[in-house]
## 1
Amino acid sequence: MSAAEPVRLATLAAAQRYVDAWVAGDFPAMMAAYSDDFVLHWFGQNPFARTYEGREAAIGALMEFTRRTGRRLLAVVDVMAGAERATVIVREQITVGEETREIERTLVYRVANDQLAECWVYDQDQRFIDRALSA
């Protein structure tokens, strides 16, 4: 076992705990997975595209995204990790107006002290997401 393997396994475990809570619909466990100083990086050309600092700011943005899009988790495609980052690939259903699409999203996490400390959100169909969040 390499010296980095225990770190990789801890990073993977933190991401997997979050995913397990998400799949189970366990909102308190999902929120407990985020560190107090969690940072969320949201990309695109929409009013949400910025960096959110702190768990409360990030949760507020995520909840508003869900409200605007009616997003629903369809599947967890993969959860993987290296020593520095964990990556979660999910498939979600997103609705904009009368149009509903299945979108693959890649969430890249930095883990610190067994909690998710930072996230970068990458969307398969960024134009559709931009339209959803600009409406």
Note: The helical segments are 5-24, 27-32, 55-69, 126-134.
## 2
Amino acid sequence: MGFELSADLAEICGIHAGDGYMRGRGGHYELDISGHVEERPYYDEHIVLLFQRVFEKEIRAKYFPSRNTYGCSICGKKICSFMHSLGFPFGAKSAIVEIPKFIFDSHDPEFYKRFLRGLFDTDGFIHFKRQKGESYSEYRKTHNCYPVLGLSVISKPLFEGVQKLLSALNFNYQAYIFPRRNTNWGADHRILMSGTENLLHWIKDIGFANPSKLSRFLIWSEYGHCPPYTTYAQRKQILDKALDVESLY
């Protein structure tokens, strides 16, 4: 029982670590991946094809009205048992999920990159900050120009594992642990990669398969800044020249 330990599988593991949930009770086995409804193109055009390629099983993405998310579910003992054998738990995983051992054991940078892409495409963020201080131009004080890539997780093992992968790939990052007011949720483990050099390194070596996140980079690349609090629909309009980017400030 099993599937090939491939770079594609490494990306699936990153996706599952970010937005996945697995059930395995009473003879019912299900792997569920879902996210924000505006990420539908990411699911339809990338995740579905990736999962079908690795697991050789026809799946379809759909809208889940009960939780207002979009994603896909895969039923079957073989797939779920295989993912469980890689270290993914059944049930709640947020506090204990970690990077599967086969990714580290591969010593293959492509496995590292694909896991990180899957994780950041689902659970990471990219935004652009305004800069304060006398040394900055008025433009940089009023426009969101400074790039920040980040990830916030509860799981300490995942937090530590991601740092190992980023270090192996020569990324510069900052790691922080913030206690939460609600101690039942555990601490917030946060990783930040700031600045143009980090972002261009990410785009060149890892990239985004999620069009929603990629759109932020494309706007920044085109205009030198990306307005905050925009929807994916608005960002597509900006890229299509149907919406004035300055109107969003």
Note: The longest strand covers residues 28-35.
